[in-house]
Write a structure and sequence with these properties.
Elements (H helix, E strand, L loop, with lengths): L3 H8 L3 E6 L8 H8 L7 E4 L11 H12 L3 E6 L5 H13 L4 E5 L20 H12 L17 E6 L6 H13 L4 E6 L3 H10 L8 E6 L4 H10 L7 H9 L3 H17 L4 E5 L7 H7 L9
Parallel strand pairs: 1-2, 1-8, 2-3, 3-4, 4-5, 5-6, 6-7, 7-8
Amino acid sequence: MNNFFKNGINNGDFLITAEVSPPKGSDVAAMLSHARLLQGRVHAINLTDSSRAVLGMSPLAAAYLVQSQTGIEAIYQLACRDRNRIALQGDLLGAHALGLRSVLALTGDPVKAGDQPQARSVFDYEAVRLLQLIAKLNQGKDANDRELPQGGTNLLAGAAVDPQSPSWSGLKSRFQRKLDAGAQFFQSQLITDFDRLAKFMDEIASLGNKPVLAGIFLLKSAKNALFINKYVPGVNIPDRIIDRLAEAPDPLDMGITIAAEQILKAKDLCQGVHIMAVKSEHLIPKILDRAGIACLNKR
């Protein structure tokens, strides 16, 4: 693996990542097909860890399959919701052994929001402690600071951030704690308020000098936007965007245009974008084309 994503960070490139959801089943054909469409268009692909607590294939297996079969670098998402510290360490060691080098450390969405609300949450750790754990493994030590006799890891750890959080002081404190724990990059939640993103970049993110990738979400219709506002915690898609979708002859095409516009806004503010096009990953190249983002040159 050529560490294309890490090299992009170090070179100060405008970074592009995209989410591809592992299947809810064992057939990976669609996942790999979506991933192959992103060849030459993204620095890395995120494989989600049962996002919104909805069952999906292990992101460890999915990330390995995407990286090994498409050649695109995978960012392995790992949530604390479903694993205790023993399982987290085992999975991280396995990820390194399988050639994965980038991991996004997440606390995880509550199970009550998902498709199996009767499941028991674990939350032995949360995102900050998971970042600290990755730092220890990178030093060749386990969670108890004991040496790993068969060797440690070399993982690039990232974290999530929500620049639109209503608590500015809480956002600043949490961001700093993740920096101190070793986060080397940040991928944001869905962004619609770019004035707020600019304020975040100036007043908080600038203190850490780590890349922030703004979350860009493909909205397919006004109904889709209203659904997200209702069911996705912390998201508030403004009426002006919903109205554009509602009034458009082709709402999906308008969603692509809005996403492309947002990429260009983000390009003036931060070091990258993280594109989310749930169940429509095949449209990500079209979004990038409309934003005028050319194919990437691998150095």
